[in-house]
Amino acid sequence: MPVLGWLPAYRKEMLVSDLVAAFIVTIMLIPQSLAYAMLAGLPPQVGLYASILPLVLYAVFGTSRTLSVGPVAVVALMTAAALGSQFEAGSAEYVGGAIVLAVMSGLMLVLMGVFRLGFLANFLSHPVVSGFITASGLVIAASQLGQLTGVPISGHNLLQLGADLFRELGNIHLPTLAIGGGALLFLVAARKFLKPALIRLGLGERTADMLTKAAPILAVVVTTLITWALGLDQAGVRVVGEVPGGLPGLVMPAMELSLWQQLAMSALLISVVGFVESVSVGQTLAAKRRQRIDPDQELIGLGAANLGAGFAGGMPVTGGFSRSVVNFDAGAQTPAAGAFTAIGIAVATLALTPAIAMLPVATLAATIIVAVSTLVDFPALIRTWRYSRADFMAMLVTIVLTLSYSVEAGIVAGVGLSVWLFLYRTSRPHSALLGRVPGTEHFRNVLRHQVETRPELALLRVDESLYFANARFLEDRVLDLISSHPELEDVVLVCPAVNLVDASALESLEAINDRLKDGGVRLHLSEVKGPVMDRLKNTGFCRNLSGRIFLSTFEAWAALNPRASDVPG
Amino acid sequence: MPVLGWLPAYRKEMLVSDLVAAFIVTIMLIPQSLAYAMLAGLPPQVGLYASILPLVLYAVFGTSRTLSVGPVAVVALMTAAALGSQFEAGSAEYVGGAIVLAVMSGLMLVLMGVFRLGFLANFLSHPVVSGFITASGLVIAASQLGQLTGVPISGHNLLQLGADLFRELGNIHLPTLAIGGGALLFLVAARKFLKPALIRLGLGERTADMLTKAAPILAVVVTTLITWALGLDQAGVRVVGEVPGGLPGLVMPAMELSLWQQLAMSALLISVVGFVESVSVGQTLAAKRRQRIDPDQELIGLGAANLGAGFAGGMPVTGGFSRSVVNFDAGAQTPAAGAFTAIGIAVATLALTPAIAMLPVATLAATIIVAVSTLVDFPALIRTWRYSRADFMAMLVTIVLTLSYSVEAGIVAGVGLSVWLFLYRTSRPHSALLGRVPGTEHFRNVLRHQVETRPELALLRVDESLYFANARFLEDRVLDLISSHPELEDVVLVCPAVNLVDASALESLEAINDRLKDGGVRLHLSEVKGPVMDRLKNTGFCRNLSGRIFLSTFEAWAALNPRASDVPG
């Protein structure tokens, strides 16, 4: 239990730091929680519910000192995509589906943690994750344009959203646009100018930064007051409306097998994507203070948080980047800051729900658009293109499918393609025929260097571990060699780069040995690594090998030389 | 066109050799073709139809000089499994399904050949193929026990077949068992004793071998005569019955999209498994004469053969092991032997169909059981277990699923598991902290050797290419290192075994650099390979690297030493 690592040593100074951080994060979280619930297609209070119990559970089970969990943009979008294709927006089934998603994803994360399957997240390659987050940011921003302009648009990709928006261009609701556009301009300006301005006014850099982060709550308060004062809700500006007050009770998820089956794949993707995001944030922050997080225990922490979110009637949660950075910068020392934030949100849920009835939905849309604008990273595309075409391909496919089809298709295709490209790369390893650098014991590629060769001897170096995907490649390479060099009598496989020979490659070596033997050619090995040799030595391959195993390639060159006078010394 | 490689140079001596080989193979193929059609659940003449046109087309498009294509046991079983779950046995839809399977598998093979996708077959690891063939052999033998004993059993795995057989134990038809059991005993005895006996009688080894291979046709002739003479068909012994005489006309496959979709996955598996079997046989035989086959052209050859099989009303075909070996041993020199075999089968189809009406089905079952007994290879299980537990796991899963569930599930699970195990293996690479062997410039694993270390310097060697699946592993390893060694000032990654750094690993290196920098530790590299360095040098990683890139580890050790007097010389 990670909580036992810090709670017994908890001191008063920590309490002060944690309380300050919790206060700042609470201010930031209130509009964010409402907004991300709306992004997921859920009633706004669901976002608050998902920001109370999960934080307490993560404080008990999580290993990061400063990670702040709760609803985040990408996971909210994935929730919307998963539920939107199955249920009617706003229906009770839709809300129930979000609860099942949270509970299932919590169970999956806990199980992955218990079985130490955290490494599964490694199969999301960085370019795929980066492309996925950029594309998700664009889809999220596009999905909010409807709320910002007061027209109904729907869909989970740019094509659907763009078509809807284009059709509704004539119906833009000007009062809504004024509120939403105003909030957007204010938030963008605050991000750009507020911090320098506050510093010029004499505030410390950290205070200025914190106040800048509070800009969304200011936008919420101001637009709510304007809407209330001018009665804009009567003029057609959509507001959050009455939400049930009080804290959430314990909710049981629907226990229908078919529903769980329908949502299982989505829950898995949400779990893995959420875990990757959370662990990246957690590791970045932990390293700054020379702390460590344990990825397998993080699975359990995040799993507990999601179970808590589900049973509190919330939605899937994970560790968010911006909120965790705020928590860290505000000086949070222990996970207790998360628990105090939970208390802050609980108080807000009790006290503020009447106040947010007149909060314009367009303001929330503006906060989402500004928040996700930091997710979009086009330069990463160019960097990846420059560095590796294969990685770029996987990234591009992820982006194109996420934008044009769905987030789930994008991430699945990206993972599949990157695994495939890796296997493809290792299935065609680099290999070279070697010759002797005259007068030395060095052997180099005949295509690149001026080297001595002998027509009856081939020295073939393979620069990859030998396993099933390249075993046949090796057979082809050697058999091509002997059919194109009829004068060959000896083939030496030079193996310094072979870290592994699996059972398929072993059989290929046996087949190569047999076929060379049939053709009157002997097979030898040289420079076999110790651990590989340990395994090979008790096999039939070594017993039946027509040639020998040489420690060095030079030894092979000398021993296989019909005219010993060629050998120096 | 491979045919242009040998036809213009065709000589009379070749003609004689090819004719002899074709005659022997024809004798062997007649019962085999009938039997494998029956195994696939198809009327016996379908096996003959699939042994005419495909052979001619392979002779034109294939690259092996001696491969003999036609119906083979494993592909027949896969055909039965694919069709049996969709159509009623013996119905016109079932026969039509076999034609669609052959045409679709032909198209897939040709397309794979055109796009040079022959390497796809590499993903069937040897243990998976070996396990699959052993398990298929067992399922095939079990499926024939019903025909051998005259009771109706059905199913495509040992559980179903065993249950049926157990239920029908009381209904065994003794005359059928006498015919089938007699044929089985004769064939087993012929295999064991006939060849030595013939050699003792003064025949040459090759002639004796050929005559032994003709034993099945003898069993067919004798049991047909007995059945006809004693009127056993009236006594309930199942016979082949009237089959349509004459050569097959051109058949158009059913052009229903839904049917093609249903069968697509099965056709793909049949194509890949057939291709792997065929290429292994072809390569083995070609190497004996120092010839080569071209796997991508082989795809086109096999594809053409399957298209021919489909349009002639046959079933999926591939290059078979036993028939190809017979063809090779009988002295076939060119693919013309295959074309002559096709003529032989065509003549047989015209002349013999009335004669096989009284052929007992139990005799065909006996020939199948004896033929597939060579597929079962239990020692391979033990060899694989001894050599590699991971490969054994993949093999065992393939066998268990093939036996207990279905051939398709077996092969798919085996491929998935072997890819997974490979990725898993490379995702947790071996790594070691190094120390200096005193008085030398060598650096070795601190756990295995008596070496010098310094508390403020860590030398970490990673023995694997760095890519997405192990990028996070590397981050964890380094961050664990700095959190457990608070006195560290410098970390050197020693990279002689790193053949590739993909974009994910590059980002991980950047993250490691940033996090170490935050923690006041510098990151260095040493022994980076040339091609890896070429890519790294223009990246932000190199520009922002907090430390240096050293050519050798010793250089790093010397340069990072606070007390220069430690350095020798």
Which key phrases capture this entry?
8 strands; elongated; 569 residues; homodimer; disordered C terminus; six-stranded mixed β-sheet
How confident is the prediction overall: mean pLDDT of chain A? 89
What is the count of β-strands of chain A?
Answer: 8
Strand order of the largest sheet of chain A: 4-3-5-6-7-8
Structural class of chain A: mainly alpha
Strand proportion of chain A, as a percent range, falls in 5-15%
Q: Largest interface: which pair?
A: A-B, 69 and 71 residues
* Global geometry of chain A: elongated
Please compute the radius of gyration of chain A using only Cα atoms.
Answer: 31 Å
Quaternary: homodimer
Largest sheet entry of chain A: 6 strands, mixed
Low-pLDDT runs of 5+ residues of chain A are: 565-569
Instruction: Give the fraction of residues assigned to helices of chain A.
Output: 55-70%
Count of helical segments of chain A? 24
Measured between the Cα atoms of the first and last residue of chain A, the distance is 68 Å
